[in-house]
Fold this sequence. Notes:
Immunoglobulin-like
Amino acid sequence: MPFYLLDGDAVRIEAVVGTITKSNPLGGTIEEQAKFNEGDRISVTNSGKTVVYKLQSGTWAPENSSEYLKWDKSDLKFVLEYPAGYTTLPADQSTIEKMALADDMYMSWDMPEIPEDRTLSTKLWRQNALVK
């Protein structure tokens, strides 16, 4: 069992894609387009600390298992971004893989309280639209 799962204060992540405004170019069906892909990475920021979480076997886990966020009732503001490290819209979107890297999603959320199950469950919203 990964170390962070043994820590009762660890923030667990459940992130899904919000309303589809741009197709996941790697998804062949509507259901696939509404999901993240295995190996996708999101950055999650809280209390001035940013941690990258990676989708592994259907679960978001810290990319570095010894680096994870902990619940702090004095600061419940979270910012999630996909893909992790996204800064500007890539000009080259000539392949499916490069198009996927342009799929900018974001969520900023001030939670009212720490959830009982210690899981941050949220939707990330696309910031770009696919133009053909």
